[in-house]
Write a structure and sequence with these properties.
There is one protein chain. The chain is an alpha/beta fold and 464 residues long. It has 3 domains: 174 residues, FAD/NAD(P)-binding domain, CATH 3.50.50.60; 116 residues, no CATH class; 104 residues, Polyamine Oxidase, Chain A, domain 2, CATH 3.90.660. Helices cover 39% and strands 24% of the residues. It contains 17 helices and 20 strands. It has a 7-stranded mixed beta sheet with strand order 7-6-16-17-18-15-19, sandwiched between helices. A 5-stranded parallel beta sheet has the order 9-2-1-13-20. Helix 1 packs parallel to helix 10. It is globular, with a radius of gyration of 23 Å.
Length: 464
């Protein structure tokens, strides 16, 4: 076994997986997680002695990588169910299939909206083609312009713009053209192709395409079972996973190693590490570093932000809440509802059901500061209007919060991110990983894949 020690900051799926693979390769690994449970955004809170399983929003596991499939199947064994994806969009008083596709627009929109959407889309494509031929194509200035080019002004105005602004709580002219992550984009022309094709051949990159053609997996006691299984593998292979352990400082030593300060159970201790893998938000890491990063780097890091997420779980005995697993909404204080019994019936007692109500927000804003009662009061008129739930049908409620759920792609974020990365890459032995650490909107399977690749690079460098 290598005598080198790698400290992993953050016990989410990325941090745990890199530690797992490091242990398989004979490298010592120690994970520090500030929360009392592992998993991060992929964790599960289980109040009332496990009677209820609460994810940070409804998840499912999906991948096309054989190695990741094998690892997940080995971890979960019989504790996972497979199901087909089912989701809807609520747009202009109508429930449409998700993802919004050519079929939705042509056959489910009101006739005038369908006609205007198709005409505006065709006009946008002709304009793009003309600019390309004339050599006058330029990058879109912001998300609103990008959406107009891709989908036409009508679809942009009635769906993409209002949904984006409702979700990110920011106007489109403050968001970068790629604020819609590459993993979730579905080009309108591609959706036309899917309209007439039964399957998708070759390497499937889009999350939406993957959801359409690949099996979905969900653990029977909440999505956190995946991270918990990885943490157990780390421990059985000789690694260490600490919970309730908050890293407060990362100091580079004269010999090139790192002193990592950890606060746990009211005491602070130091760990000397040969390398550090950090999955925390980029600004937090920059603030923890000693020697301090240059002012320009600190300023750039301060311009990188994260959207927060609150999920209100409402327990009810009403057996059927939604016509599908989950619904994305426009014109509501929340952006998504999910019926958890449609994911798995073992997340709450047999005679009960749970509605997950998701609110995106910014940490510290009025939504973030709201209590469960206040959020339910805000939501209830819309739940009643849409026939989802009546006040008398509410049995109890729970709240889970994630302060750093989604990296925000502000205008100019790439320049600021590059400034920070350039500085951090000059520190040997320090690596960023995961959705928050790498400032990328990636899914659990991609997190695991990138973690395995990083572990192999670290082990390879040590062997070399």
């Amino acid at each position: 076994m290598s005598e080198r020690l790698i400290v992993v900051i953050g016990g989410g799926i990325s941090g745990l997986t890199v530690a797992w693979r490091l242990r398989e390769l004979g490298v010592r690994a120690e994970v520090f997680e500030a929360d009392e449970i592992v998993g991060g955004l992929a964790g599960t809170v289980r109040p009332e002695d496990g009677r209820y399983c609460l994810d940070f929003g409804p998840h499912f596991f999906i991948t096309q990588k054989p190695e990741i499939v094998a690892r997940v199947d080995d971890l979960l064994r019989d504790s996972v169910i497979k199901f087909k994806r089912s989701a809807q969009l609520y747009v202009r008083g109508r429930f449409l299939d998700y993802p919004l596709s050519a079929r939705n627009v042509l056959f489910n929109f009101p006739p005038l909206d369908a006609l205007l959407s198709v005409l505006a889309f065709a006009y946008a494509q002709v304009l793009q083609f003309g600019r390309m031929l004339a050599g006058r194509q330029r990058p879109a200035a912001d998300f609103g312009e990008w959406s107009g080019r891709q989908f036409g002004t009508h679809l942009t105005n009635i769906f993409f713009k209002p949904y984006t602004e409702n979700f990110w709580k920011l106007p489109c002219d403050q968001l970068a053209p790629d604020v819609l992550p590459a993993s979730t984009r579905l080009n309108f022309m591609k959706s036309l192709k899917l309209l007439f094709m039964r399957g998708v051949k070759g390497n499937v990159q889009s999350l939406i395409e993957r959801e359409l053609v690949l099996p979905l997996r969900y653990p029977v006691r909440g999505y956190g079972m995946l991270a918990e299984g990885v943490a157990e593998r780390v421990r059985t292979q000789g690694g260490t996973v600490h919970v309730g352990a908050r890293v407060t400082a990362v100091e580079r030593q004269p010999d090139g190693r790192y002193r990592v300060a950890v606060q746990q159970s009211g005491a602070v201790r130091s760990v000397i590490a040969d390398g550090v893998v950090c999955t925390l938000p980029v600004p937090q890491l920059v603030q923890m570093l000693t020697p301090a990063a240059p002012p320009a780097v600190q300023q750039a890091a301060g311009k990188l932000g994260y959207l927060s997420l609150i999920v209100l779980y409402v327990v009810t005995r009403k057996p059927n809440l939604l016509a599908t697993s989950y619904v994305y909404y426009l014109g509501r204080p929340y952006h998504r509802l999910a019926e958890m019994n449609k994911f798995c019936t073992t997340l709450c007692p047999p005679d009960e059901n749970m509605l997950a109500i998701e609110f995106s927000c910014h940490a510290g804003d009025p939504i973030w500061r709201s209590s469960a009662d206040e959020l339910l009061e805000l939501s209830m008129p819309h739940l009643v209007q849409d026939g989802v739930l009546e006040p008398a049908q509410v049995e109890k409620k729970f709240l889970v919060r994630a302060p750093n759920a989604y990296p925000i792609r502000y205008l100019g974020y790439r320049k600021n991110l590059e400034v920070v990365r350039t500085h951090l890459e000059q520190l040997p032995g320090l690596a960023l990983l995961g959705r928050t650490g790498e400032y990328q909107y990636i899914d659990s399977d991609q997190c695991m894949e990138r973690a395995i690749e990083l572990a192999e690079r670290i082990a390879g460098a040590a062997a070399g």
